[in-house]
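Sequence in, structure out.
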Amino acid sequence: MFLFNGVVLVVALLAGGPWAFAQSQPPVLQALTESLPPLNYENDGKITGFASELLDLMAAEAGITLQKQLLPWVRAYDRATKPGDTVLYSLVRTPERESLFRWVGPIGSRRISLYKWSDRQDIQLKSLEDARAYRIGTTLESAATKNLIKQGFVPMPLDGAASGLELGVNDEQNMRKFIAKRFDLLVSLDWAAAYNAKNAGMDPAQLVPALVLDESLSYWYGLNLAVDPEVAKRLNAALQKVRNDGRYTQLRQKYLLKASK
């Protein structure tokens, strides 16, 4: 009987089942994110939002402890790409980033557009080429910004040029600049544009999509390559469970659909 129990224990450990995982030291992940409401943001001292709450559910299912920190995107990205037990979100999965992270997800879809104010009837974009004549507000180090630069758009110099990219640290700052007429077009997620406009005291209906830049990619969680691959497996399995039991849909209705109205 003793030998049989020992064999069962060894098999359980080799199988890497939930019991075996629970017996080992539970990993602690430094969860790094930026202010990108309603996906991730700080409210009353707590980091919350759709992606943050979803990660909480997944970590609880997987037996993983999180320590969240809200940082400017450049700092968060820099830390997440240096060796350490970190997870970065909400992260666009691009070919350039593919080998830099262990991927968990997807979290949700991503639709990026160039927005103008409704009173700017002079701005009529038929293609991205038409946007080269305008000042464009976008976020430093974002995937959308990198894609624009790849296509020949350049940051505006300090001499107040009539066209080019003005790089801001986050979407909230960009919205304030947009309201102040610092630039002509704003790069933003569709639901985030409405969310930030409303929070800044503007009617979101005054924002008009001038051109869709991209709707082919999704947001993911990016684990540092130093993190045990088993952690990524556990989190992906937990995400699938949360999708299957309806909690994912409930969260989406709580955050994303409300924000897109």
